Amino acid sequence: MKSLKRYQYEKYAVLCSLAYPRVFKQTRYGFDPNGQRTIANRYGKTMIRILWSKDKEEAVIVIKGSHSIGDWLINCAIWKRSCSNLGLDYPIHAGFHYLLNQESSPSHKRDTLGLSVFEKTMAIASALIEDGKRIAVTGHSSGGAIGCVIADALEHKYPKSIKRIVTFGQPSIGGLRFRKKYQLAHKTYRICCDLDIVTFLPPVPIFYWHVGKMLWLYNGRIYENTPSFVRFGRSVVSWVMRPLSYHLMSKYIRNKDFFDDR
């Protein structure tokens, strides 16, 4: 697996962050004026943005996390459902399965009723791939989880069409069968920050597994593939010791800039 470069991390992190506001001006970030298609959820709220430029090989699928209390409750549906209707040979988290299969409200003049979020995303991405694009997928929270499933489905349909997958604060998606069948682990980067509790969900060890390379941003460093129990243990110890750390002289030295240079 190739390493994730800093500029790549920053690009996907910015796109994930800016995907949440209602209005997103893609031209400010190097995409064409007509290089954006949005995919709405069942309530008509934008859930996925697909971005591209004619002169660039890479198109990017950006997926938001949970939008509402209802979506958070859906994340609690931790039983599994088969993805055979998506063309994939494994079951995944039932909540994520629902997010993919919910009907997508029309958000473009070409949109029609009756298509699911998954079907609409696949149709738009497939047209871009057939036009010579390779696809990068990025998403936050549950958006990262369903992004992995979308990417895997595209890779099954169009081998070598996926450039990379970068997720932020992503919960696990499926069980051991999913982990064995998922074919993009070597292109998947799962970013975790400090003690982000969502990255430990669902809280059912063995029943759920993560995939790809985990990059843990913690204490000013990047750790690779740190086991969950080690990550949790270090974070708890850090919390317990933090009040004592404020007594160290290094803290006092670091705060010298508060004083005027007189």
Automatic annotation (TrEMBL):
Checking Pfam families in the record gives: Lipase_3 (PF01764)
UniProt domain Fungal lipase-type: residue ranges? 60-203
Q: Which InterPro entries match?
A: AB_hydrolase_fold, Fungal_lipase-type, Sec_MonoDiacylglyc_Lipase
- Which positions make up the signal peptide? none
Q: Which PANTHER family match?
A: ALPHA/BETA-HYDROLASES SUPERFAMILY PROTEIN, FUNGAL LIPASE-LIKE DOMAIN-CONTAINING PROTEIN
Report what the protein is called. Fungal lipase-type domain-containing protein
Q: Which organism is it from?
A: Vibrio hippocampi
Q: What is the lineage of its organism?
A: Bacteria, Pseudomonadati, Pseudomonadota, Gammaproteobacteria, Vibrionales
